[in-house]
Amino acid sequence: SAPVLFTTVGIPTVTNTGATLIDANSARLQGAVINTGGEAPHVWFQYWLTGDAATNTFDAGAQTGACNAAVSGLLTGGSYAYQVLASNSAGLVVSGVRTFTTLTGTMWYVAVSGSDTNTGTGWATAFATISNGVAHAVMAGDAVLVSNGTYSVSNQINITIGITVLGVGGA
């Protein structure tokens, strides 16, 4: 009789690599499939407001490496936790839990492709200069999100209240 060939499938390995692009109402949850177990696993991100029993689930589909979930509708200043789940025919695995806190205050956006005549309230309407973003951040808790790029700063920028200036991979 002819030999029978078969392939075994193991449980995948997944890790939680932290949240990025965090602003007042959204974040990018990140994870990675470290080992598929021989079969591309289906991946989900579960996230929840700390202390809340309700869990939200983002279906990321079949994944074989780094993966992420852009989530929105989060509460301003909310403390959140999340984990990554992966499943193939051998079983389900759950990553460790990581936490993040959404920003408070008004978000001001700066991008190399922006214009200082814009409103600065989103990537599509970003300011062009960091100084203009900082000038609009007039309340403690406001944040200036600066997209990747090279910016010329001709004058000193003075920050006199508790704002956040954060470099992010935006527009």
Give a description of the structure.
The chain has 1 helix and 11 strands. The mean pLDDT is 91. The termini are far apart. It is elongated. With 171 residues, it is mainly beta. A hairpin with a 5-residue loop joins strand 1 (13-20) and strand 2 (26-35). Strands 3, 4, 6, 7 and 8 form a 5-stranded antiparallel β-sheet that branches. It has a 3-stranded antiparallel β-sheet with strand order 1-2-5, with no helix packed on it.
Keywords:
171 residues, mainly beta, 3-stranded antiparallel beta sheet, 1 helix, 4% helix, 42% strand
Q: Which of globular, elongated, flat, extended, rod-shaped describes the shape?
A: elongated
Distance between the termini: 62 Å
Per DSSP, the total helix count is 1
Structural class by helix and strand composition: mainly beta
Estimate the mean pLDDT confidence: 91
Order of helices and strands: EEEEEEEEEHEE
Determine the fraction of residues in helical runs and give it as a percent range: under 10%
Q: How much strand content do the residues show?
A: 35-45%
**Strands, count:** 11
Largest sheet: 5 strands, antiparallel
The radius of gyration computed from the alpha-carbon positions, rounded to a whole number of angstroms, is 21 Å
Stretches where pLDDT is under 50 for at least 5 consecutive residues are none
